[in-house]
Write a structure and sequence with these properties.
Strand order of the largest sheet: 7-8-9-3-10-11
Bound molecules: adenosine-5'-diphosphate, magnesium ion
Number of helices: 9
Helix content: 25-40%
Length: about 260
């Protein structure tokens, strides 16, 4: 993962990302890459910068420095005169974002739209796909996450686990090359965690490239083939899940994993 490899199969490359909020440096130079079909888990204590990293990848937060490569496309940011950071080119930003599917901790569904409307919105607005075709594909994806029967329901009529499965279907509807998950189960009641993890596991088995920020250590270990431990805005340790979880090298990772032992 950290070794340069054949760029033809490299799905995403994150290079030297820095981000501060005011005086607070949150990301201090993060780099990694994932090949097509890789599942990369990111673990680390609360506040270590995991969400900021995912947000920098799709420029929901514009990094102060660094590059994101998605296939042949590159996102860079530059400073405006007032010091605020902007992404280089709005058209490219939209194009790259469409290739990244993001699933948030709190689902972020549009509450005034039905499940189906939530799923077809992106394909229609961004990809200019005809409504009938977008709806057909959306129903296929809703079926895949076990929710075709909820197509006409509103998010408030669904459980948290169901809402999160809709959010996954919505991200998949854009046919993203890389799926980004930010603690997709941490806002859920325990009995709903399994249904969401099952969907994510299925995507992993289908060979989807995914970056998964999670506190579900056992799950991370089972589904991912690479793992990163973040500490204080840096990648403290990286390797296979077996190496990280069974043979942590850094004292900080050992301490982080201690409560699980
Ligand atoms: P994690 O997801 O690992 O818990 P975050 O990326 O959410 O960590 O946050 C890392 C640090 O950045 C925290 O100290 C947090 O308070 C700070 N932070 C995150 N977003 C912002 C923001 N928009 N403005 C100011 N500080 C922020
Ligand atoms: Mg977070």
């Amino acid at each position: 993962m950290t070794v340069p490899t054949d760029s033809a199969t490299c799905a995403i490359q994150v290079h030297n990302i820095h981000k501060s909020f005011g005086d607070l440096p949150v990301l201090k130079g993060i780099s990694f890459q994932a090949q097509q079909g890789d599942v990369l888990s990111i673990i680390g204590a609360s506040g270590s910068g995991k969400s900021t990293l995912l947000r920098c990848i799709n420029h929901l937060v514009v990094p102060d420095q660094g590059e994101i490569h998605i296939g042949q496309d590159v996102l860079r940011s530059h400073a405006k005169r007032d010091g605020t950071m902007v992404s280089s080119d709005p058209k490219r930003l939209e194009k790259v974002r469409a290739r990244l599917g993001m699933v948030f901790q709190n689902f972020n569904l549009w509450s005034h739209r039905t499940v189906l409307q939530n799923v077809i919105e992106g394909p229609i607005q961004v990809k200019k796909i005809a409504k009938a075709q977008a709806s057909e594909y959306a129903l296929h994806l809703l079926d895949k996450v076990g929710l075709a029967h909820k197509a006409t329901a509103y998010p408030s009529e669904l459980s948290g686990g169901q809402q999160q499965r809709v959010a996954i279907a919505r991200a998949l509807a854009m046919d993203p090359e890389v799926m980004l998950f930010d603690e997709p189960t941490s806002a859920l009641d325990p009995e709903m965690v399994g249904e969401v993890l099952r969907v994510i596991r299925q995507l992993a088995e289908e060979g989807r490239t995914m970056i998964l920020v999670t506190h579900e250590m056992q799950f991370a270990r089972e589904v991912s083939n690479h793992a990163i431990f973040m500490h204080n805005g840096l990648c403290e340790e990286a390797g296979t899940p077996a190496a990280l979880f069974d043979h942590p090298q850094s004292t900080r990772l050992q301490q982080f994993l201690q409560p699980l032992a």
